[in-house]
Amino acid sequence: MPLARLRLLLGAYPRVFWTLVVGTFVNRTGLVVLPFLALFLTEERSFGVVQATLAVSLYGGGTFAGGFAGGWASDRFGRRPVFLTSLLGGAMLVGVLPFMPTYPGILAVTFGFGFVGEMYRPAVTAAVADLVPEAQQPQAFALVYWAINLGAAVGPALGGWLATRSYLALFVLDGATMLAYAVLIAVGVPETRPEAAGPEATPRPRLGAVFRDGTLAVIALVVLLVGVGFVQLFTSLPLSMTAAGLSELEYGLVVTVNGGLIVLVGIPVAAWAGRSLPSLALPAAVALMAVGLALNAAADTFAAFALIAVVWTLGEMAFLPIVPTVVARMAPADLQGSYQGAQHAGWGLAKMIGPVLGGAVIAGHGHATLWLGAGALVLVAAVLLVAIQPVLRRRLGAAPAVPA
Q1: Helix, strand, coil shares of the chain as percentages rounded to 5?
Q2: In angstroms, how far is CA 188 from the centroid of its own chain?
Q3: N or C terminus: which one in the chain shows less Cβ crowding within 10 Å?
């Protein structure tokens, strides 16, 4: 990127936004426990596949609850308290996890890590909506997504390398990067929540309006279906690749292909998809993800898994960063956090259902059935997006309003 263009981009957004982008990159680079948690539990702690995937699912259960809680709390108390509570608490819990002596203890701490450690995510998306005008939000969310995947281009490969030497190092790195993000928040991010109007200084979020919004419910369902398929790439894919005789490092490199491609072209693709809302580009992207997932059923070499990663990544780039843009444009100003929490809860529920479902399908029917089923599930999400296109055209073309 030419220096003049880089300066123009940096000047287009406030410094607080860029602090969030840098913090997101740092934290995502160190997010190495979850992709290797199933392998840690099966290889280091000698648990079965179903036990390992159940633990990963409980992390998703915590994320599901944490999405709602973090979104509500960021509207009620502010974005900054949620950031600090989530990152500091998550760092403490991930540090404790590898030392838990019993399986029930591992399950409890894993759930807590998911709940506390993921509460900050809806606060981040709400803060971006607070800081950035609507016209710039597609590119802003694309930049956050780019930072996530810049970290993903490094983190999984680093995690794979560390896992071949010491699983404990994974937990140390994950906790350290959460602490680093907390420090960035503490010194560089003031409160971004809009000031309350009227006599009540801190209004209580009207959660009934969130639950009555049928369009938001469909979007959350789409996120859930896509998420159940997508999470297999980070829980079941390492198991499928290990079963094919491949190593942890090779799995990390496949995920790095995903992150590297997004780093190269993710910003323009996501920004284009955001500017074209609403259109059939969004369901088409989800359908492409479905095809990529299903193709994993036929893969048995590193080259095949890496090439297939290109397919599902192309769909991912035009879908994942666009969801918060859609939700931000739908949400009333005082419910940004709660609306974002609803869609993040969809991801959390997917993380809860997906790993245990994937483990059960692998154990009962094999790896090929898992990937074909995941592709079919995500294809249903694409159909739902086509069905709500008329509603999205009306909602995104008007100013946000509280649904009746």
Answers
A1: 80, 0, 20
A2: 23
A3: C
Angle between helices 336-365 and 322-330 (to 10 degrees): 140
| Residue 284, amino acid | A
> How many residues are present in the chain?
404
Q: Which residue type, as a one-letter code, is found at position 267?
A: I
Q: Which two tokens stand for residue 387?
A: 């069905």
Read off φ and ψ for residue 402, nearest 5 degrees.
Answer: -70, 125
Burial class (CB in 10 A: 0-12, 13-18, 19+), 22: middle
334 token code pair:
């005082």
The residue whose two tokens read 């699912």 is 57
What b-and-e string marks burial along 303-319, b requiring 16 or more CB atoms within 10 Å of the CB? eebbebbebbbbbbbbb
Task: Summarize pLDDT for 155-201 with one digit per residue, the tens.
Answer: 777 877 887 788 888 899 999 999 999 999 999 999 999 875 444 55
Spatial contact of 22 and 146, defined as CB atoms under 8 Å apart: no
Run of H or E including 235 = helix 214-243
* Contact in structure between 341 and 70 (CB atoms under 8 Å): yes
CA angle (317 as vertex; 110, 125 as ends), nearest 5: 55
* DSSP 8-state symbol, 40: I
3-state DSSP of 336-359: HHHHHHHHHHHHHHHHHHHHHHHH
Distance, CA of 259 to CA of 241 (rounded, Å) = 18
CA distance 7 to 3: 6
Tens of pLDDT, residues 13-42 = 999 999 999 999 999 888 888 878 878 888
Please identify which residue in the block is written with the tokens 């983190």.
155
Residue 300 CA to residue 327 CA, distance in Å, equals 38
Q: Is the pTM of this model over 0.85?
A: no
Q: How far is CA 163 from the centre of its chain?
A: 22
**Token reading at 296:** 């994993």
